[in-house]
Structures are given as structure tokens and as C-alpha cells.
Amino acid sequence: MARAEDVLLQETTGANTTTYVYSATGMLYWVDGSGEPTYRMTDALGSTTRLLDAATNVTDTYTRDGFGAVRSHTGRAAPTSRFTGEHVATAIEPVPSNP
């Protein structure tokens, strides 16, 4: 559940809308169009190392080299974050926090 101080962004591709939840330290998690959350686990720099589902099962793992390039990825999701947690997106629109 997003807190009042979190920032929500939505990305729509066709009929699928994904909501991303950011805190002051970076992206915390996202919720896909079916309502399923995916949580990010990061290293000390903020780069994604694992993705977890709602039951905290590890669904994806990422290994990076010293320059941040993904060297290996296992799991179902396409990489959605770059080195130090920079998000990969096309068109993102802000979502009002008090609709």
C-alpha cells in the first residue's frame, strides 16, 4: 500500500496499465494491470538484484558487472531497471495522490 509521501506513476501499454510506487530512495514496487505487485530487492547502489511476488517468492534474479551491465538474468520479467535503479519506461504519466 502506497504511503502519502510516496510518488505514484502509471505506464499504459495498450490496455495494460502498470502503477509504479517510488519513495525518496527509489522505486519500491509496481502493480501490474491484474493487481499483482512485484517488489524490488536492491544492492547498496540501488540496482535490482531480485524481484519478489506478493508471497515474497523470488521470481527473478539479476547479476551485474562492475559497470552495471546485466550479466545474467533468471525469471519471468524483462529487466525494468538499469544500473542504480534507473527505471526503463516509455511514457509515464503522474498519478494524482489524492484522486
Can you describe what's shown?
By secondary structure, the chain is an all-beta fold. It has one domain. It has no helices and eight strands. It has an eight-stranded antiparallel β-sheet, with no helix packed on it. A hairpin with a 2-residue loop joins strand 1 (7-13) and strand 2 (16-23). The model has no long low-confidence stretch (mean pLDDT 78).
Fold topology:
Layout: E1 7-13, E2 16-23, E3 26-31, E4 37-42, E5 48-52, E6 58-64, E7 70-75, E8 93-94
Antiparallel strand pairs: 1-2, 1-8, 2-3, 3-4, 4-5, 5-6, 6-7
Question: Gist?
Answer:
With 99 residues, this protein is mainly β. It is built from no helices and 8 strands.
**Helical amount:** under 10%
Q: Approximately how much beta-strand content do the residues carry?
A: over 45%
CA-based gyration radius: 13 Å
User: What's the average pLDDT?
Assistant: 78
The CA-CA distance between the termini, in Å, is: 15 Å
- Helix/strand order: EEEEEEEE
Sheet with the most strands?
8 strands, antiparallel
Outline the low-pLDDT stretches.
Answer: none
The outline comes out as globular
